[in-house]
Design goal:
5-stranded antiparallel beta sheet; 19 strands; alpha+beta; about 450 residues; 8-stranded antiparallel beta sheet
């Protein structure tokens, strides 16, 4: 099984490290790769959409699992799929949508693997209704450090450590996942503007239960009375009757549009406070004050950035930091304070979203808890950014909140236990399951996971 030495980074393109990249194409090759990991261990990797260092392993091995990408069985009547962990959500949609089924949870990109979706316990716009991805996993096959392949099911300690465990309990080989039925590949979407953060939270609190999917783009450069103004977008899968006559002949057609890729080189300083401020102003003013029942393509509603390959290049060679945190219900003042601080700091973020989370899932390192989550992209070269985010981390932790490990690239380890109360259980299980430290990543070393 060939290996090559490469520079590996997350989607944010910060802090690259060098590792041996191994691409197993059979389960047997995966077992061999784990057994031959070497002193610096190994970490499984999917399509590289974790923003930080979760799928990096400096000086060790990185197992590219995208070579294991077979769909083995589809229960069309019951609504489930058995597939390899290297299958992407994009490929699942290509296969499942014509059959009237959709993935139960999707993040802002469909270019993540099933294994990555479980390892990060991804969430989407429907968490307040459907929870995170692992809630829909019936079972999985896990290759552990001793070379054993174990069947793992919900309700067990190993499942709760693996879902959200960032690949540190083993290599997921296959998974069986329950699906969401759909009648069309169009979405019925309501859009409205919120004048400030309080207006936005009031609208979400009062009416989110009416929608399966809900998200708000938020202008983090707006200040004063407009602080936290937003465009709120919510919807559900359109029924066949909602489609115009010309679209009813192929209601389950799935053909996502693609634009030219972002150039390999983007001049530094493209995303400044001035340029992002202009974009935010145009985006907010261009949104309807209130529009109901607009039909949108599924890809446009869920994954607008997937239409621009390599969009992460627009931040230049310095890359960007994705910062996402959650604070619980009753901690709205913490959210207001952080949004105000970001606005006063003038962080040039044009990709900022606010959502409400529903019930938490039992996985030990799963990110969502009931409350409010804010995610934003910030150019990594912004002066003083590290110290500023450290202050926000402390504020989030003091409020009982947490940051998302799948997007983290700089959290200090001393705050981790306050954010994730089951951290000691996770560490103890890892020590028992993997005493030689076969599975390790740059993230795990940085945070002493």
């Amino acid at each position: 099984m060939p290996a090559e030495t490469v520079s590996v980074t997350g989607w944010g393109r910060t802090a690259p490290t060098t590792a041996r990249l191994i691409r197993p194409r059979t389960y047997e090759e995966a077992v061999t790769a784990v057994r031959d990991s070497g002193a610096r261990g190994s970490i499984p990797r999917g399509l590289g959409r974790a923003y930080g260092d979760a799928a990096q392993n400096a000086g060790g091995a990185v197992l590219d699992m995208t070579g294991l990408d077979q769909i083995h069985a589809i229960d069309v009547a019951g609504g489930s799929v058995l597939c390899d962990a290297g299958v992407s959500l994009h490929h699942l949609m290509e296969v499942l949508l014509p059959l009237g089924w959709f993935v139960p949870v999707t993040p802002g990109t469909r270019y993540v693997t099933v294994g990555g979706a479980i390892g990060a316990d991804i969430h989407g716009k429907n968490h307040h209704v459907s929870g995170s991805f692992s809630r829909h996993v019936v079972s999985l096959e896990l290759l552990t450090a001793d070379g054993t392949v174990r069947t793992v099911r919900p309700g067990t300690a190993l499942f709760d450590a693996t879902a959200g465990g960032m690949g540190l309990t083993g290599v997921i080989l296959t998974a069986t996942v329950r699906l969401q039925p759909v009648a069309t590949t169009l979405m019925s979407v309501d859009t409205e503007r919120a004048t400030d953060l309080d207006d936005l939270m009031a609208r979400l609190t009062a009416t989110d239960h009416r929608y399966r999917y809900s998200v708000a783009w938020i202008d983090l450069l707006a200040r004063g009375a407009a602080t936290g103004r937003a465009v709120l977008t919510r919807g559900d899968h359109a029924p066949l009757a909602a489609l115009p006559a010309r679209a009813r002949s192929a209601p389950l057609s799935f053909r996502p549009a693609r634009l030219p890729a972002a150039p390999a080189y983007v001049p530094e300083g493209l995303l400044t406070r001035r340029t992002v401020g202009l974009f935010n102003e145009l985006w907010y003013r261009g949104a309807p004050r209130a529009r109901r029942g607009e039909l949108q393509r599924l890809s446009a509603f869920f994954h607008p950035l997937d239409g621009v390959p390599h969009w992460n290049r627009v931040y230049g060679r310095g890359g960007f930091v994705q910062y996402q945190f959650v604070v619980g219900h009753g901690r709205e003042e913490t959210l207001r304070r952080i949004v105000g601080r970001i606005a006063r700091r003038r962080c040039p973020s044009f990709l900022a979203v606010l959502k409400r989370f529903g019930d938490a899932d039992p996985s030990w390192l799963s990110f969502p808890v009931p409350g409010w989550t804010l995610a934003l992209d910030i150019p990594a070269n912004l002066p003083g950014l590290g110290a500023f985010l450290d202050e926000l981390d402390a504020e989030v932790a003091a409020a009982g909140g947490r940051v998302y490990l799948a997007k983290d690239s700089r959290l200090r380890p001393d705050l981790l236990a306050a954010m994730y109360p089951r951290l000691d259980d996770f560490r103890a299980l890892r020590a028992e399951l993997d005493p030689r430290g076969v599975f390790v990543s740059d993230l795990a070393r940085r945070l002493t996971l």
